[in-house]
């Protein structure tokens, strides 16, 4: 059995992940292992897809591994589902796309699930109308920090002064590690870009201030502005600037399923995996940590059932897991909620919107932080010769009392104000509320997660995924899928995880 072949805990790839004695001490070589996964979304499906491979590649390792995925819905997908509204328009739960370069393994798996895909050029701009004192919309290239040469002259001069100081004092500034996201922005860009872009946009997306966030999540998510690139852009005249390649993001290629939206990927993948692994309409109501059992209700029959496990993989929000099991004190972590507002429209597409895949909106006068031109992605309208569609994402604090109906009305008015749609084009309006929208990378997040993972993994519970792992920087669909893949490799083959870092201090001796 693979449980015997455990890498030594001193292996360099462990990087603060507990493997070996800490977990595998609970199992005997040759003994069966029952893995129960809460949720059949990308993380759980990544685990299932990989186990299906292991059964073929390493049958002796997987022969005594039993897998069950408990999914409360009647289908797979979770937050990556697609909904069809009453008029026949399809809506994803956010701007879900797949970048080909991130994980070839993920791309291979999703192409196995779905045959027909559209490859698209990522083309997105940022509305900075408030910076110019204008009503309506004023688009600049993405990312906004690269568009400094197009800012109003006084703002441009101030930004350039800030950046020049940082280039000249790079060594001195680099020595100081930023403690917050705000300090990270000040270190790399300066106060002008912080105030003109990062602060308003952070409030829109994260619903917190820049000083409340840790810089640990940033990675490649926020583009830095190299001195050479800035000088190159500043040397261009206004006409040349409008056509310039800003070198980060706009020319990236992404793919999207031709039919059925994002949800089609996960439904199709689940349908091709062993069906005995899946229990749908199974709502988990209790986890007995000491007894190693899960209680769930069959939402169709109403029957309450209990299932034992050797290993529990949780993909539901980790704060709820900790709160319900009382396995340790409650976590000091934060999340926001996101309202999805989809608007189905009669053709034609508004002329200036035709080339775009999505637009960003730091402007506090409209509720959405992003508008996606979803009908460009695939066949997501009742008839693409007659209709097109846009999807708005609007974030609010968890406790914000604003209603879905209010946000929907504000979003429609905002789309009209920005000149993206006209009222008489509207043929369908869809809305839903995602109570868990973004896992916010607060300053205390990493230490709080490490505290929880220490106790959870001591009890053979592994929490992964967008909210199961609570790390935004590794919470896209591809990240979550690979988290599932790497976790089953760890459990069955003893291969360390790389994508997700628990922060748990490893034991150097048995």
UniProtKB/TrEMBL annotation:
A molecular-function term among this protein's GO annotations: oxidoreductase activity
Amine oxidase domain: residues covered: 44-322
Signal peptide extent: none
Coiled coil: none
Protein name as catalogued: Amine oxidase domain-containing protein
Higher taxonomy: Eukaryota, Metazoa, Ecdysozoa, Nematoda, Chromadorea
């Amino acid at each position: 059995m693979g449980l015997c072949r455990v890498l030594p805990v001193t292996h360099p790839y462990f990087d603060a992940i507990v493997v070996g004695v800490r977990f595998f001490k609970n199992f005997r070589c040759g003994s069966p292992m029952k893995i129960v996964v809460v949720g059949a979304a990308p993380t759980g499906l990544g685990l299932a897809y990989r186990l299906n491979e292991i059964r073929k590649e390493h049958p002796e390792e997987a022969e005594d591994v039993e897998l069950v995925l408990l999914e409360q819905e009647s289908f797979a997908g979770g937050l990556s589902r697609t909904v069809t509204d009453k008029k026949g328009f399809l809506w994803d739960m956010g701007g879900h796309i797949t970048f080909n370069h991130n994980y070839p393994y993920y791309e291979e798996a999703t192409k196995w699930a779905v045959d027909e895909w559209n490859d698209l050029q990522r083309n997105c701009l940022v509305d900075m109308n408030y910076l110019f004192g204008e009503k309506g919309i004023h688009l600049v290239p993405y990312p906004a920090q690269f568009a400094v040469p197009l800012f109003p002259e006084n703002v441009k001069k101030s930004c350039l002064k800030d950046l020049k100081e940082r280039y000249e004092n790079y060594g001195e500034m680099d020595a100081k590690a930023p403690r917050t996201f705000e300090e990270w922005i000040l270190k790399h860009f300066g106060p002008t870009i912080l105030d003109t872009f990062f602060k308003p946009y952070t409030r829109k997306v994260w619903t917190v201030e820049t000083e409340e966030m840790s810089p640990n999540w940033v990675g490649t998510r926020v583009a830095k502005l190299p001195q050479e690139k800035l000088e190159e852009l500043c040397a261009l005249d206004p006409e040349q600037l409008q056509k310039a390649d800003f070198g980060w993001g706009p020319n990236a290629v992404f793919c999207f399923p031709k039919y059925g939206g994002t949800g089609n990927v996960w439904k199709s993948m689940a349908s091709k995996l062993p069906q005995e692994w899946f229990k749908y309409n199974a709502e988990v109501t209790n986890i007995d940590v000491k007894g190693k059992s899960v209680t769930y209700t069959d939402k169709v029959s109403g029957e309450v059932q209990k299932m034992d496990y050797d290993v529990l993989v949780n993909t539901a929000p980790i704060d709820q897991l900790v709160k319900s099991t009382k396995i340790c004190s409650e976590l000091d972590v934060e999340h926001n909620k996101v309202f999805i507002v989809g608007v189905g429209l009669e053709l034609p597409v508004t002329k200036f919107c035709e080339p775009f895949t999505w637009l960003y909106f730091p402007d506090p006068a409209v509720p959405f932080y992003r508008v996606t031109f979803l009908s460009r992605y695939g066949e997501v309208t009742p008839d693409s010769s007659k209709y097109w569609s846009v999807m708005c994402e609007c974030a609010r604090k968890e406790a914000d009392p604003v209603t879905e109906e209010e946000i929907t009305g504000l979003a429609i008015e905002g789309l009209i104000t920005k000149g993206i749609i006209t009222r008489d084009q509207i043929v369908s309006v869809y809305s839903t509320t995602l109570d868990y929208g973004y896992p916010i990378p607060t300053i205390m997040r990493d230490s709080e997660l490490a505290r929880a993972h220490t106790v959870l993994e001591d009890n053979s519970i592994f929490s992964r995924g967008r909210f199961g792992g609570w790390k935004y920087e590794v919470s896209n669909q591809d990240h979550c899928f690979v988290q599932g893949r790497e976790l089953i490799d760890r459990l069955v083959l003893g291969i360390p995880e790389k994508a997700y870092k628990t922060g748990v201090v490893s034991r150097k001796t048995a």
